[in-house]
Amino acid sequence: MAKAKTQQHPTGKSPTATPTAHATYRACYQRFAPLAADLPDRDVEICRADVRIAFANVKRGVQAACADPARIRKALPELPLDDVLALPDLGRALIFAATRVTAKAASSREIDAKLKLVIELREPMLTLAETLAKRGLLPKDVVAEIRAGSGKYDLASDGMALAHLYAEHAGVLRGKHPFTQEELDQLREASEWLLDTLTPEGARRPAAKQRGEAEKMRDRLWTLLVRRYADLRKIAYYFHGDAFEDVTPKLLSRLSSSAGEDDGEEIEAEDGGSEDANGGGSGGAVEQPASPSSP
What we know:
This protein is mainly alpha-helical. It has helices at about 25-35, 50-65, 70-75, 80-85, 85-100, 110-135, 140-145, 150-170, 170-175, 180-195, 205-240, 245, 255-270. The protein has two domains: about 25-105 and about 210-270, no CATH class; about 110-205, no CATH class. The protein is built from 13 helices and no strands. The protein starts with about 25 loop residues before the first helix and ends in a 26-residue tail after the last helix.
């Protein structure tokens, strides 16, 4: 069985300018989960917020306060601006984590459907990969390791490895295989889902354990978001003075109905969104003292 190639430890940093495109919610979760896991237990805050409201305010605040990153870097060189610019993606990670808390346990039918998709794509992709490896276009050892796997969990891991293999060598393989990007994405997404859902023994993960782990990660991501949002408000206070709350509203302040609807549409259009994506069910705005360091 082959595992997807391990990437470098993520920094959670964004480009030097506010990005116009963004990654999927799942990808954002995978990016920030290691950072959140490193937080000391004593510092973790329980998330009882409606994370959709927080996400909307984060996006609004970054867009309004960070339109000119170069100016901010010059004025506030000690402030971790890259972390602030990454706030929208951190919000997406939090949304994804919250949906995992409220998600229902996977049914046998759902698991079988995902396995069927992986099996249908795995064999033709792997067979062709073996041929390409013999011609020196793919690493033979990696392909051989994928072939050695067996069992449901191994199938999912193999699917991830194949999707990564074809993506990593896309330039060399261009025009040499019939698989579409959509098929590669389907294989990767189905494999990720199975790896999240199954144990290495192939059984379904206990729902209670899944929820417990998901709640812990949601709380950690929330804590990370609160910390970084405080830095965003410092930027707004520096440039806008007492009007900083117009630029960076309190993290749980409710937006106008039209703005809230727009954000809801974006969340639901992504793979990590859900109408149940809230922290602990309170969903209300928590009043906090007006301070540039307060979320």
